[in-house]
Amino acid sequence: MVQRILERGEIESLDHNAIPRLRLPAADSVFKARAARLRRLAANEIKGTPVSPEFSGYLSLMAALVDAQQAIFVTLTSDDAPLPDQAAIALAREHAMPPLLISAERPAIWRNILTRLLTQLQTTHPSPYITAISTELLGLEPAVLESLADAVLTQRTEFLTPSQAPFIAAALQVLWTWQASKLNLPDVPTLEIGTLCPVCGSHPVASVIRIGGQSQGYRYLQCSLCASEWHMVRVKCSHCEQNGKIAYQSLAPDDDATSTTIITEKPENKANDPQKVARAETCDDCYTYRKIFNQEHDYDVEPLADDLASLMLDVLVTEAGYARASGHPLLWFGESI
């Protein structure tokens, strides 16, 4: 069967009730798939996403961290991370608010998750760096850790140490992803604003074009915290929601084959094109960008992992004058890239 590419006007006029508006995280595969993808990216096996030897080591560390997330995730129970009761869920639906809102009181179990993550990493990925980070974080008072968690959830980078923030974010991801995986779709309302996660209210880390079933060919934003994915039409800025000045930038080898540059996407849509696996969707209305990954060109794309690995694309798009729309939970610079 030949698939037809929809024009922009046709996309906007689709009956969105027929499109799966939300994809809750699968309890058995989120962290497992993410760790596997990070290892392939670290090994420089993904065409179109070059990874330097220096950054490969960091990706390998993050793969070990995600393995630890998976190991802890499967042990959690509803006693550890209780869901909101039916009255709270009904209230969230009534007011079109996320049921697992990041500003609500969070279960203290997240601090135990952080301890377990660091303890496992000291066993599976021992290094002076992990020892130092573990000593720092495990020596902090609960009130300080809670303040750091608030800063991570609101992306207030001025209050964070870039070396500590990824591990705090990882602990929070385990908690929120577990809770999100236990929700029922009717529990989650459609928000008035389409640029925040309808499950928890966090920013998306990236977007992905999915294939298969009812989601075939549709673009979803993936939450940086709970891994839920919500539908947003293509060719639309995921930051300001304008659609008149959108362009797509991807990496292409320079003539000397030793470096890369960004190119604006060409109209050809050949299958399995490495240049279209990872792209930056830039907007000349708000001058921000967010990356978009295409499962049509690489079935195994994992938005959070691929976004982390494609740092070169961030650097070049930023040099072209665009600001990143939101940060990455596993890589912090103390300020936006």
UniProtKB/TrEMBL annotation:
CDD domains assigned to the protein according to its UniProt record, in alphabetical order: FdhE (cd16341)
Cytoplasm in keyword set: yes
Domain of life where this protein originates: Bacteria
FdhE C-terminal domain location: 235-331
MF GO annotations: ferric iron binding
The keyword Membrane appears for this protein: no
GO-annotated biological processes: protein maturation
GO cellular component assignments: cytosol
Domain FdhE central, residue spans: 196-234
All copies of domain FdhE N-terminal, residue ranges: 19-185
Keywords, comma-separated and alphabetical: Cytoplasm
PANTHER family: PROTEIN FDHE (PTHR37689:SF1)
Protein name: Formate dehydrogenase accessory protein FdhE
Protein's organism: Glaciimonas soli
Classification of source organism: Bacteria, Pseudomonadati, Pseudomonadota, Betaproteobacteria, Burkholderiales
Gene this chain is encoded by: fdhE
